[in-house]
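anyone seen this seq b4? input:
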Amino acid sequence: MAFHRVALISMVKGFFVFYLILSIKLVEGNCRNTTLKLLDDQIQTIQNSVRTIVNEGSCTSNKGQVGFHAYMGSVKTYAKGAVYKYDQVVTNTHNAYSATTGKFVAPERGLYIFSYSTLSNPGLYSHPMLVVNGKVKSWQACNNSDGKSQHMTCSNTAILQLEKGDVVYLADQFGKATVRKQFTDFSGAKLN
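predicted toks r here
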């Protein structure tokens, strides 16, 4: 009887091992099918997301990087508080800078960098201030009042967090600023 019991246990163990091997192969097949199904579902989800973005215009609304660069086409004199108008536009993505008003309107929220430089004639000066929505954010002093025959170049850079629609411009802080043509410029670009 003990012999039959040992033989029966061995036979059950063998059958159980065979069943496990068979089950593993079935699970492996199902895993492959499941994996392919999951990948197919993920690809379908990505395709749907891309279609949604394209249909909503999210892909086409961003025309690339935001940036502008402009300079003055002639020698100009500005009174205190007057907005500097850079009438020679070199770069102007999104048409965010207006040569007519001298103002840049942020087309989107982000971190922006602005750079401005001025060239003052001998014996004259300029004091531009960078203004955002009516508040001064950066200053420059180009005092060439003692200069007899030399021009003076001054520059400044500011990095500012802007919201969509914020208005940025340069204006004179003291009055009767005289700035010289292409050597006086204003640039800005969105960093992120």
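The first strand starts at residue 67 and ends at 71. Confidence is low (pLDDT under 50) at residues 3-29. kinda curious what u guys think
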